[in-house]
Design a protein that fits this description.
This protein is an alpha+beta fold and 140 residues long. It has a single domain, classed as Cytidine Deaminase, domain 2 (3-Layer(aba) Sandwich), CATH 3.40.140.10. It has 4 helices and 5 strands. The protein has a 5-stranded mixed β-sheet. Bound molecules: tetrahydrodeoxyuridine. The site of tetrahydrodeoxyuridine has 13 residues, from α2.
Length: 140
């Protein structure tokens, strides 16, 4: 588990980038901050579209941003969203994240970046379909 100061810093980044969310249709703004193993932090927000199904979640935007910058190993993800009960990444984002970090630590926070809950991607997505599920790819 990350140190509490690191979790706080990651949540702060998630809350900051949440302000850039483009969510005119749902009004539900989400920010995500992904901590790479080398210490870099990659942020993403949800970006909606008038063609609704093209919407991309904050978590996948953070992940794709990280991969485009050369990061592929991750320690933790923080998510900031307005919520009664903390919002965990959707199924599509769990699958995308598990490709790179099946045991990712996930820190859920409110819109201001206050910590609400910390859990493991392994618990959110047991028995994932991963690279090792494909014939000839061995263990990931
Ligand atoms: N959303 C995220 O950004 N992350 C999630 O894990 C769940 C949902 C976004 C997508 C859409 O823009 C809005 O929240 C409402 O579903």
């Amino acid at each position: 588990m990350l140190h509490s100061e690191t979790r706080t810093a990651l949540l702060r980044r998630a809350a900051e980038v949440r302000r850039r969310a483009y969510a005119p249709y749902s009004g539900f703004r989400v920010g995500a901050a992904l901590l790479a193993e080398d210490g870099r932090i990659f942020a993403g927000c949800n970006v909606e579209n008038a063609s609704y199904s093209l919407t991309v979640c904050a978590e996948r935007n953070a992940l794709f941003h990280a991969v485009a910058e050369g990061a592929a190993r991750f320690q933790a993800l923080a998510v900031a969203a307005e919520c009664d009960s903390p919002a965990a990444p959707c199924g599509a984002c769990r699958q995308a994240l598990s490709e790179f970090a099946p045991d990712l630590e996930i820190v859920l926070g409110d819109a201001e970046g206050r910590e609400r809950e910390t859990l493991s991607l392994r618990d959110l997505l047991p028995r994932r379909f991963g690279p090792d599920s494909l014939p000839g790819r061995g263990q990931a």
